[in-house]
């Protein structure tokens, strides 16, 4: 397929490179001038959108996605597929899909889980929203860039799944970190805490697969001085999106709200920017009750 790839950052560049490696004709564009291995470089955004079978975007946020969509939708050929893999608000995802479909295009919102390692290794999980026809066209590409793709429903359903998942992740990481800090103060060894919780009803991905305590459990960013991994500011972004969606949908999400305010303080006032989101553990350890 002829694929335009717009947004060649930490995630987009390796994803585009994997598509090129699999034999697709990939043309990439990024305002910052970054490139992807094996992909031709478009001089302008137009050249990455015109005459393509598929255009994929991997951009920082909803306003930028909307801006890019306005530029490329009129240039794309009828029947081509617009796949947005960025994490954005549900409203932006739905608005872009609506505009694309009105212009005779297929549209899929397909945010990913798996981080930079998953993007380079081709092991991402895609959660997709859009018509069955659009998903069918995108699926072979998801297979190259990832190991699993779930068709979650109509336009916006992929973004809805992503922010619900990450709201759970933010809250469980905080719960795991505060429990470790409490265990420390109670004189309970961290390894014993892990041995019990990872096989008891308090287990979660945060504890079992991404343990925030250095030297305990499988290798994780905690073992690398909390270098991301998944940066605290990206978790803050996703928690902002879930609260924005909760407000719009009139859903009561107090744990998500509290996780948002804790990550906001962590990133903005407590040195959390640029650290992994599991660095909440040293933050809790350094504090007492206020
Ligand atoms: P990034 O900042 O490294 O990359 C974004 C790229 O988009 C940048 O290179 C930037 O120059 C480019 N860009 C911005 N405006 C543009 C425009 N108008 N036209 C063309 N290019 C433009 O971010 P990233 O880490 O690659 O993340 C991309 C998306 O994936 C985000 O929505 C993020 O939330 C999501 N995501 C990231 C991770 C992760 O671990 N990094 C994991 C899952 C999802």
Can you characterise this structure?
It is a single chain. By secondary structure, this protein is an alpha/beta fold. α1 runs parallel beside α4. α2 (62-72) links the parallel β4 (54-57) and β5. The protein contains eleven helices and nine strands. The model has no long low-confidence stretch (mean pLDDT 97). 47% of the residues lie in helices and 14% in strands. Strands 1, 2, 3, 4, 5, 6, 7, 8 and 9 form a nine-stranded mixed beta sheet that branches. The longest helix has 29 residues, at 157-185. The structure holds nicotinamide-adenine-dinucleotide. Residues 6-12, 29-32, 34, 45, 58-60, 64, 68, 86-87, 112, 115-116, 230, 234, 237 line the site of nicotinamide-adenine-dinucleotide (NAD).
Please work out how many helical segments DSSP would assign. 11
Bound ligands: nicotinamide-adenine-dinucleotide
Low-confidence segments: none
Tell me roughly what share of residues is in helical segments: 40-55%
Keywords:
single chain; 290 residues; alpha/beta; 11 helices; binds nicotinamide-adenine-dinucleotide
């Amino acid at each position: 397929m002829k694929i335009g790839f717009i947004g060649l950052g930490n995630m987009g560049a390796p994803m585009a490179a994997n598509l090129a490696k699999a034999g697709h004709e990939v043309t990439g564009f990024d305002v910052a001038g970054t490139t992807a291995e094996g992909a031709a470089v478009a001089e302008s955004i137009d050249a990455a959108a015109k005459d393509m079978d598929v255009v994929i975007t991997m951009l920082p946020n909803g306003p930028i996605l909307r801006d890019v969509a306005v530029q490329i939708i009129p240039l794309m050929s009828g029947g081509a597929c617009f796949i947005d893999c960025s994490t954005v608000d549900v409203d932006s995802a739905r608005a872009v899909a609506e505009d694309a479909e009105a212009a005779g295009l297929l549209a899929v919102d397909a945010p990913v889980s798996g981080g930079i390692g998953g993007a380079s290794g081709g092991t991402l999980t895609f959660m997709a929203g859009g018509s069955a026809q659009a998903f069918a066209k995108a699926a072979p590409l998801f297979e190259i860039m990832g190991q699993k793709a779930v068709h979650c429903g109509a336009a916006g359903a992929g973004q809805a799944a992503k922010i619900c998942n990450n709201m759970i992740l933010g809250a469980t990481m905080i719960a795991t970190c505060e429990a470790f800090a409490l265990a420390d103060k109670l004189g309970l060894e961290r390894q014993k805490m892990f041995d019990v919780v990872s096989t008891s009803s308090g287990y979660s991905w945060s504890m079992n697969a991404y343990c925030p305590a250095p030297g305990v459990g499988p290798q994780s960013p905690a073992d690398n001085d909390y270098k991301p991994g998944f940066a605290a500011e990206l978790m803050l972004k996703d928690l902002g999106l879930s609260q924005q969606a909760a407000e719009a949908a009139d859903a009561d999400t107090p744990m998500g709200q509290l996780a948002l305010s804790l990550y906001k303080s962590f990133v903005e006032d407590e040195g959390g920017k640029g650290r992994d989101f599991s660095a909440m553990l040293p933050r809790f350890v350094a504090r007492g009750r206020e």
